[in-house]
Amino acid sequence: MSRLKAADFAVKTNQQLFPTQVASTTILYSPLMPDREAIFRLEELITDDWPVSYIQSLSISNHWYTKNSVGLYIVPNNIDPHKGTSSADLANVYTGWQCESNVVLNLQRDGKFSLQKDNQSYSGNWKITSFPYLQLSGSEPYLHTYFEVSQHGEVDKISPVTITSLTPVENDFLADGCVLTFGLRDN
Fold it and tell me: Taking a C-beta distance cutoff of 8 angstroms, is the pair 81, 88 a contact?
Protein backbone atom coordinates (compact mmCIF):
# COMPACT_ATOMS: atom_id res chain seq x y z
CA MET A 1 0.00 0.00 0.00
CA SER A 2 2.87 2.39 0.78
CA ARG A 3 4.31 1.76 -2.67
CA LEU A 4 1.01 2.79 -4.26
CA LYS A 5 0.74 5.93 -2.13
CA ALA A 6 4.34 6.86 -2.98
CA ALA A 7 3.38 6.61 -6.66
CA ASP A 8 0.57 9.17 -6.10
CA PHE A 9 -2.30 6.70 -6.00
CA ALA A 10 -5.03 7.68 -3.54
CA VAL A 11 -5.55 4.31 -1.83
CA LYS A 12 -8.89 3.50 -0.21
CA THR A 13 -9.93 0.09 1.04
CA ASN A 14 -13.56 -1.00 1.07
CA GLN A 15 -15.69 -3.57 2.87
CA GLN A 16 -17.56 -4.92 -0.16
CA LEU A 17 -17.70 -8.64 -0.79
CA PHE A 18 -15.14 -9.91 -3.28
CA PRO A 19 -16.59 -9.84 -6.84
CA THR A 20 -17.78 -13.33 -7.76
CA GLN A 21 -16.18 -13.22 -11.23
CA VAL A 22 -12.68 -12.45 -9.89
CA ALA A 23 -10.63 -15.54 -9.06
CA SER A 24 -7.06 -14.24 -9.52
CA THR A 25 -5.28 -10.91 -9.17
CA THR A 26 -7.26 -8.43 -11.25
CA ILE A 27 -7.40 -4.72 -12.02
CA LEU A 28 -10.86 -3.34 -12.79
CA TYR A 29 -11.31 0.23 -13.91
CA SER A 30 -13.91 2.68 -15.10
CA PRO A 31 -14.57 2.85 -18.83
CA LEU A 32 -14.41 6.65 -18.36
CA MET A 33 -10.90 6.59 -16.88
CA PRO A 34 -9.19 9.78 -18.15
CA ASP A 35 -5.62 8.58 -17.40
CA ARG A 36 -5.32 5.12 -18.95
CA GLU A 37 -1.58 5.14 -18.26
CA ALA A 38 -2.35 4.99 -14.51
CA ILE A 39 -3.63 1.44 -15.00
CA PHE A 40 -0.33 0.30 -16.49
CA ARG A 41 1.67 2.15 -13.81
CA LEU A 42 -0.40 0.31 -11.20
CA GLU A 43 0.29 -3.02 -12.87
CA GLU A 44 4.05 -2.29 -12.97
CA LEU A 45 4.06 -1.39 -9.26
CA ILE A 46 2.51 -4.66 -8.10
CA THR A 47 3.42 -7.23 -10.75
CA ASP A 48 6.67 -8.38 -9.07
CA ASP A 49 4.78 -9.42 -5.93
CA TRP A 50 1.33 -10.05 -7.40
CA PRO A 51 1.28 -10.91 -11.14
CA VAL A 52 -1.89 -9.47 -12.67
CA SER A 53 -4.05 -12.01 -14.51
CA TYR A 54 -6.72 -9.65 -15.86
CA ILE A 55 -7.19 -5.97 -16.57
CA GLN A 56 -10.81 -5.16 -17.38
CA SER A 57 -12.81 -2.02 -18.04
CA LEU A 58 -16.25 -2.71 -16.66
CA SER A 59 -18.46 -3.24 -13.65
CA ILE A 60 -18.59 -6.62 -11.93
CA SER A 61 -21.33 -7.71 -9.51
CA ASN A 62 -22.08 -4.77 -7.23
CA HIS A 63 -18.70 -3.14 -7.98
CA TRP A 64 -19.02 -0.11 -10.21
CA TYR A 65 -16.01 2.04 -10.97
CA THR A 66 -16.65 5.75 -11.36
CA LYS A 67 -14.87 8.15 -13.69
CA ASN A 68 -11.48 8.24 -12.04
CA SER A 69 -11.18 4.99 -10.08
CA VAL A 70 -9.52 1.61 -10.27
CA GLY A 71 -10.28 -1.57 -8.31
CA LEU A 72 -7.30 -3.75 -7.41
CA TYR A 73 -8.09 -7.30 -6.23
CA ILE A 74 -5.06 -9.21 -5.00
CA VAL A 75 -5.42 -12.99 -4.84
CA PRO A 76 -2.45 -15.06 -3.58
CA ASN A 77 -1.57 -18.28 -5.43
CA ASN A 78 -3.51 -21.38 -4.35
CA ILE A 79 -6.22 -19.25 -2.67
CA ASP A 80 -9.87 -19.42 -3.66
CA PRO A 81 -11.38 -16.02 -2.74
CA HIS A 82 -14.89 -17.48 -3.00
CA LYS A 83 -14.44 -20.35 -0.58
CA GLY A 84 -16.31 -18.42 2.12
CA THR A 85 -13.68 -19.02 4.76
CA SER A 86 -12.53 -15.50 5.57
CA SER A 87 -13.77 -13.27 8.37
CA ALA A 88 -15.18 -10.86 5.80
CA ASP A 89 -17.23 -13.69 4.25
CA LEU A 90 -18.62 -14.81 7.61
CA ALA A 91 -19.51 -11.34 8.92
CA ASN A 92 -23.31 -11.41 8.58
CA VAL A 93 -26.53 -11.60 10.59
CA TYR A 94 -27.46 -15.22 11.37
CA THR A 95 -30.86 -16.39 12.57
CA GLY A 96 -31.74 -19.51 14.50
CA TRP A 97 -33.15 -22.52 12.68
CA GLN A 98 -34.77 -25.38 14.60
CA CYS A 99 -34.19 -23.53 17.88
CA GLU A 100 -36.48 -23.59 20.90
CA SER A 101 -36.19 -19.82 21.21
CA ASN A 102 -35.54 -16.80 19.00
CA VAL A 103 -31.78 -16.47 18.37
CA VAL A 104 -30.05 -13.78 16.27
CA LEU A 105 -26.27 -13.48 15.94
CA ASN A 106 -24.61 -10.48 14.29
CA LEU A 107 -20.95 -11.09 13.37
CA GLN A 108 -19.42 -7.73 12.48
CA ARG A 109 -16.45 -7.17 10.19
CA ASP A 110 -14.45 -5.54 13.00
CA GLY A 111 -14.40 -8.80 15.01
CA LYS A 112 -17.22 -7.80 17.38
CA PHE A 113 -20.48 -9.73 17.79
CA SER A 114 -23.87 -9.24 19.34
CA LEU A 115 -26.19 -12.13 20.10
CA GLN A 116 -29.84 -12.10 21.20
CA LYS A 117 -31.16 -15.29 22.78
CA ASP A 118 -34.58 -15.14 24.43
CA ASN A 119 -34.41 -11.92 26.46
CA GLN A 120 -30.64 -12.15 27.03
CA SER A 121 -28.09 -10.06 25.12
CA TYR A 122 -24.46 -11.07 24.70
CA SER A 123 -21.63 -9.15 23.09
CA GLY A 124 -17.90 -9.51 22.69
CA ASN A 125 -15.37 -10.64 20.11
CA TRP A 126 -15.40 -13.39 17.52
CA LYS A 127 -12.65 -15.00 15.47
CA ILE A 128 -11.89 -17.97 13.29
CA THR A 129 -9.64 -20.13 15.44
CA SER A 130 -8.84 -22.75 12.83
CA PHE A 131 -11.26 -23.11 9.96
CA PRO A 132 -13.99 -24.40 10.17
CA TYR A 133 -14.22 -23.36 13.83
CA LEU A 134 -15.40 -19.96 15.01
CA GLN A 135 -15.14 -18.74 18.61
CA LEU A 136 -17.37 -16.25 20.46
CA SER A 137 -15.96 -14.67 23.64
CA GLY A 138 -17.78 -12.21 25.87
CA SER A 139 -17.34 -11.07 29.46
CA GLU A 140 -20.62 -9.48 30.65
CA PRO A 141 -22.45 -11.78 30.63
CA TYR A 142 -19.75 -14.42 30.28
CA LEU A 143 -19.77 -16.36 27.02
CA HIS A 144 -17.12 -18.64 25.56
CA THR A 145 -18.43 -20.99 22.90
CA TYR A 146 -17.48 -22.48 19.53
CA PHE A 147 -19.36 -23.05 16.30
CA GLU A 148 -18.51 -25.19 13.30
CA VAL A 149 -18.93 -23.37 9.98
CA SER A 150 -20.37 -25.18 6.96
CA GLN A 151 -21.81 -24.14 3.62
CA HIS A 152 -24.15 -25.72 1.12
CA GLY A 153 -26.19 -24.63 -1.85
CA GLU A 154 -29.94 -24.67 -2.31
CA VAL A 155 -32.19 -23.58 -5.14
CA ASP A 156 -35.47 -21.84 -4.42
CA LYS A 157 -38.09 -20.53 -6.87
CA ILE A 158 -35.91 -17.53 -7.77
CA SER A 159 -32.26 -18.62 -7.96
CA PRO A 160 -29.48 -20.59 -6.23
CA VAL A 161 -28.67 -19.59 -2.64
CA THR A 162 -25.51 -20.32 -0.64
CA ILE A 163 -26.40 -21.13 2.98
CA THR A 164 -23.76 -20.62 5.67
CA SER A 165 -24.53 -22.56 8.86
CA LEU A 166 -23.01 -22.16 12.31
CA THR A 167 -23.52 -25.34 14.33
CA PRO A 168 -22.72 -25.21 18.07
CA VAL A 169 -19.82 -27.48 19.03
CA GLU A 170 -21.17 -27.80 22.59
CA ASN A 171 -24.89 -28.18 23.22
CA ASP A 172 -24.92 -26.38 26.56
CA PHE A 173 -25.48 -22.89 25.08
CA LEU A 174 -28.10 -23.56 22.38
CA ALA A 175 -30.70 -26.32 22.27
CA ASP A 176 -29.80 -29.58 20.56
CA GLY A 177 -30.39 -29.24 16.81
CA CYS A 178 -30.32 -25.41 16.86
CA VAL A 179 -28.26 -24.00 13.97
CA LEU A 180 -27.62 -20.37 13.04
CA THR A 181 -27.95 -19.68 9.31
CA PHE A 182 -27.37 -16.95 6.74
CA GLY A 183 -28.31 -17.17 3.06
CA LEU A 184 -26.72 -15.29 0.16
CA ARG A 185 -28.39 -15.35 -3.23
CA ASP A 186 -25.92 -16.26 -5.98
CA ASN A 187 -25.55 -13.72 -8.79
Answer: no
